[in-house]
Amino acid sequence: MSDSSFKIHITNSTHKHEKELASPREEWYAQYSKTLFELSSYEACIAVCTEALNKVKNMHYHNNIWFFRRIAQCYYRQKIYDKAIETYEMITSEKHDWFLFHELAECYFNKGNNHKALEMAKKAASSAGPINFKVELIALLGDILYCSGEYDLALKHYLLVRAIREAENWKENTVLTQKIEKLNAGKWKTDFKKETLKNELTFYWNGNKINKPLNRDIKKGTIVKLLAAKEHGTDGFINIDDGVTIYFFLPNHHPGYQRLNIGQKVTFQTTDTPKGIKAKKLKFVE
Asked: Fewer CB near the last or first residue (10 Å), C or N of the chain?
């Protein structure tokens, strides 16, 4: 099988240019390794990719990167996450496509390293690429955040996935729906527009904090219980009109702190925490 590449001349209406094509041997390695991977023959695929990297001296179309990627994918499928991570780290030091960071994030997540998984997934999400191509990545971000106790942010990612799927007229994903229902349970508004969620989460993917609660509706209630004052403030419970009691904490630097009493009317917003719903942004009603 020939190791020699060859050139073709391409002509269009404006100019002519020359393009060098892969040798028959390089093309054979590419196609054979792809077939082995699709057949789940992972050890054989790794061997063929390694042989290609050793024997083909002049790679085309970034095939050296793609052979290494196929090796990393084989390690991932075999749950050999350390070797997969090592290979992906080498690849992403040279090539920065968003899907490579996505695959690296999956390796870290399956290894149980949520911190690194989140770092790589955010890097993938903030890299160039159509948002509708990234639905699995955004769902992965939701899973990582959920496992990290960031339930509010996890829900927003799942809602963005749903908004993208609806905009593309894709079939309903029952697993996604179950995740949203489990996190939401009727507590929040979930009719956010795709662009609203995309803009807010893009801000987060680029390394910024999101402090807005999901539910921006202003609620009214009455303070019905105060707990013992702490060094930095006082916590207690608010009763709202439908009989629901919600926890709050008021820092001692709040302008209305000295007027804090049972029976005080307040307005507030709510946010989700690992321990349940919490009131925040309290304002006293005169």
From this structure: C
